[in-house]
Design brief:
Keywords: Bacterial flagellum, Cell projection, Cilium, Flagellum. This is Flagellar basal-body rod protein FlgC. This protein is 44% helix and 19% strand. The protein contains 2 helices and 4 strands, in the order αββββα. The longest helix has 36 residues.
Length: 142
């Protein structure tokens, strides 16, 4: 595997993890939003990640398997109804006094943030390692 292919694979990971961080942040920010642009409560967003092959030139270098990058195939909205909380003083309360809040679990979203952040750091370290290896190869060639 050459340097540029490894760099493309790591950069695809960086892009996917950036999307995961953005979506988890959006979910946390809207955990208490009772009204969206459509007038309904916010729906939690989750990324769907998909492996992407980088072609046959990497197959021999990957030990017979195909080297894979990653991409966000789609961003899916949660289909759950949300949680109902009794608060008759809330402006969005229904006739029974219940407010429908988004089905966002802050603990789950913080764990997603931590996981995406660590994966982003790992991909950034891989890019740094590739840069160091390329620099050393150039130094040897001098």
């Amino acid at each position: 595997m050459d340097f540029l292919s490894a760099l493309r694979i790591s950069s695809s990971g960086l892009a996917a993890e950036r999307v995961r961080v953005n979506l988890a942040s959006s979910n946390l920010a809207n955990a208490e939003s009772t009204r969206g642009p459509d007038g309904k409560p916010y729906k939690r967003l989750d990324p769907v990640l998909q492996a992407v092959p980088f072609g046959d030139q990497l197959a021999s270098a990957a030990g017979g398997g195909e080297a894979m990058g990653v991409q966000v195939a789609q961003v899916r909205q949660a289909e759950t109804a949300g949680r109902r909380v009794y608060d008759p003083s809330h402006p969005d309360a229904d006739a029974q006094g219940f407010v429908t809040l988004p089905d966002v679990n802050p603990i789950h979203e913080v764990v997603n943030l931590m996981s995406a952040s660590r994966a982003y750091d790992a991909n950034a370290s891989a890019v740094e390692t590739l840069k160091t290896m390329a620099q050393r190869a150039l130094d040897i060639a001098r």
